[in-house]
Each structure stands twice: as structure tokens, then as C-alpha cells.
Amino acid sequence: MPAVSLLPLFGSPAGPGPLGGGPGGGRKASGPSAFRLTEKFVLLLVFSAFITLCFGAIFFLPDSSKLLSGAAAENLAKIREDHERALREAKETLQKLPEEIRRDIRQDKEKLLQDRRGRKEAGAAGLPSLLFRKPVGAVGQEPADPNVRQKRAKIKEMMKHSWDNYKRYAWGLNELKPISKQGHSSNLFGNIQGATIVDALDTLYIMEMKDEFKEAKEWVEKNLDFSVNAEISVFEVNIRFLGGLLSAYYLSGEEIFRKKAVELGEKLLPAFNTPTGIPWALLNIKSGIGRNWPWASGGSSILAEFGTLHLEFIHLSHLSGNPVFAEKVMNIRKVLNRLDKPEGLYPNYLNPSSGQWGQHHVSVGGLGDSFYEYLIKAWLMSDKTDEEGKKMYYDAVQSIETHLIRKSSGGLTYIAEWKGGLLEHKMGHLTCFAGGMFALGADGAPNGKTGHHIELGAEIARTCHESYDRTSNFRHSIYIPSVFLSM
């Protein structure tokens, strides 16, 4: 049987009949020369089509000069830059000792394994994959000044002493009572344990106390449990546990800290379930039921407490991919900005149900302090893009300077308290942080007031130093009284 051709045009004769090639047929069979001619004709058609396609394509190609403009030119420049950097790194590597090269290879392998493990853990926890960048200068730097090195070594020695004794007498509990040498767990944290461990993570890392950091991390992995049926202080748990876990993650990149931070943040969210979104001070993290301190001006929330959630919750949204955390704290700002503020000042009490101020008591010390601190830090943390936080801070500082800051007859600058329009000429010990806050915010001060803010911070710090220096038993001194301020 003859082979079947791919094209019917080239098929073999079908046999006898009108179209066949047999004797008496109506069509003469094609000879070898005729068959070759047909082949040539088809090949000529195919070749002509190919040439036409090639020449036509030339008119549709982009202009070569345009290939090197815009993004393409940037890509080419980046390729060249990467190539040059690779050459530099290769030269530097060749200049290293074999031991240094082997050490670098080991470190790269460890980092790769850590990144893979982190992505695996993050995926298991339902968290987005994030590229960890170790902060520059957090560790590995040695000061040139020998006096600074000596002081730093002494501070580390004190930290080591504190940590070792906490581990010996109170490991796993929230606090150590240094005189009785007993562990203590404050009810501010409910049944959550290990506040000292979590709060010390960043210090251990920065001081390069690697063994202590490792054992603290292992404790967090195995023992830190937020599934408790207890009432906690939202403020205290936020700054100690949530803040400690976030800072530990940003320093080390260990995924367990991110996972625990997001887990805790989710358990704190019910505190915001109020008519205004201003959170409760106290929360049962199992039932989600919240309330305020009974002594706080008719069931009000406290400015320093609900105002000291912003930094942590903004970072929770970034690390979890869930915008709800940021939305909760941004809503607090919306409520505050809608309210009239007496003389531009922020009273310490705000009712979460009515959205109105409670008692008109203003203090930059206890009950108000860290609200102002978090405003300036939110602006700085945002790479100075949080214009709302910046404006709220500098407007508040202007009102504080106008209505609260006074100078005693003895020449000491202090920040008084304000109650219902009347000044109380006393400055709480907790107000002493304001010296550092004014200096921190000096760089962005409006109207060329940078120097003025630095000077103001130095004056507050001097007043606080004098209070310590002149008080024989400061342990019992809560306020810097007006009698002292007149000295």
C-alpha cells in the first residue's frame, strides 16, 4: 500500500476511474519531473511568505534609540552598577584570609536558613512573608573613647547582675522583689507571665548577651501564653509585652516574636469595642469584656493609656498585613481632633461612651505623659511623613509652654498642672521625661525654634536633677512641690 502524503495535493493516484491513473483514465499520470516542479512551486510560495514576514517585521520593531530611554535605561544602569559592585566584592573577598572567607560563608548559610525558617513559620501562622533587614548599628560597634567603653562595660555588668538574679529567684514570673528575693506577678498583667523576660529582650540583644537572649527566646517559644481568663491593663500589656516582642523581632528577625506579637494584638482588639472607639483601660482577654478604672473621672479612659498604643498598633498592621490595628489607633486621633480643647490643652480623662472630656485636669506627668511622647515618635517613626502627628505634637507643646511652663523665683523651669483653669504649681516626678522629649522634637520645631526647644529640654532636666540632688530621701518624694521650686 502506498504511503499516505501529508498534503492531499501530493497524494498518489486513487486507482481506476475518471480521476484515477489507470489505463483509459481521463488524466495522465505525472512523471518525476512534473512532481519536482510542483514541489518547487510550493517551496517558492513558503519562502516568499517568509521573506515578506521578515521585511514586514522590520517596520514593527521599536526604535533602538527608544530602547535605552526611561525604564530600560534605568535597568541598564542598574545592571552596570550591580556588575561593578560584584567586581568590588570579588576583589575584597580575594584580599581576605581563608578563615574570614569561611566565616562569611557560614554566616550567609545561617542567614539563609533563618530566612527560610522564618518564611515557613510566618506562612504557618498566616502572616505575610517579609524581608528582614537587620538594623544598622544595633550591635557590633565599639566606641573609640576609652571612658565610654568603661562606662558601657559597667552598665552591661549591672544588667548581667540583674538578669542573673532574676533568673535565680524569679525566672518566668513578671518581676523580682530585690530585697525579699522573691518573684512577683502584678495583677496588671492578669495571668500572663514573663514580663521581665519579654521587656528585656531588646536590651539583651543590643548588649550582645547572646546566651541570655537565646534562653529568653526559648522561654518565649515554650511558655509565653496569652490564653488566660484574666483582666489585664491594656496599656501595661501593650508597652511591656507587645512593645518587647516587636522590638525583639525588628532587632533579631526571629519569627516567633512577630507571631506572638500579632497573636497578642488580636487579643487586645476587643478593648476598642466602645461607642467612640476609645479603648477601655482594662480587658478580660478571654471574654473580651472591658471596663475603666473606677476612680477615673466617672468611668473615663486615661489620655496617657489610650494615647500610648499608636506606635505598636501601626507596626502590627505592617507585620500582619491586617489594617485593622492601624485603623483603631487612627480613629483615636479622629475623636481627639473633633473635640474642643481648653486653651489647646488635652485633659487627662475622656469618656469612651459619650466622647466628651471628663474632669479638666491637665498634666504632662502622670496620666498624660506618654501621649505627647508618642505623637513626636509617630512622626519620626514614619520618616517624618505623619504630618497629623507632627501638628498635634507641636500645637500641644505650644499650649503647654504658654499655659503650664513657669519659672520659679529660684530660677528653675517647671511644668505645672492645670485643673479647671487654675494652675497647681507642682511638677510630678514622671514629668521629668519631658526634658528628653523636647530635645527629641527640637529638630522639627516650627519657626526656627530648634534651639529654643533644646534649651527648654535642658532646663527641665536641670530642675529634675536639682530635685534629686537636694532631696535626702527621694524614694518618698513623688512631687517636686512648690516649696522646693521657690528655693
UniProtKB/TrEMBL annotation:
EC number: 3.2.1.-
SUPFAM superfamilies cross-referenced by the UniProt entry: Seven-hairpin glycosidases
Gene3D superfamilies: 1.50.10.10
Keyword Hydrolase: yes
A GO-annotated cellular component: endoplasmic reticulum
Keywords: Calcium, Coiled coil, Disulfide bond, Glycoprotein, Glycosidase, Golgi apparatus, Hydrolase, Membrane, Metal-binding, Signal-anchor, Transmembrane, Transmembrane helix
GO terms, molecular function: calcium ion binding; mannosyl-oligosaccharide 1,2-alpha-mannosidase activity
UniProt key word Acyltransferase: no
Subcellular location as annotated: Golgi apparatus membrane
Coiled coil start-end: 73-100
Family listed: Belongs to the glycosyl hydrolase 47 family.
PANTHER family: MANNOSYL-OLIGOSACCHARIDE 1,2-ALPHA-MANNOSIDASE IA (PTHR11742:SF31), MANNOSYL-OLIGOSACCHARIDE ALPHA-1,2-MANNOSIDASE-RELATED (PTHR11742)
Recorded metabolic or biological pathway in which this protein acts: Protein modification; protein glycosylation
Protein name: alpha-1,2-Mannosidase
Transmembrane parts of this sequence: 40-61
GO biological process, any: carbohydrate metabolic process
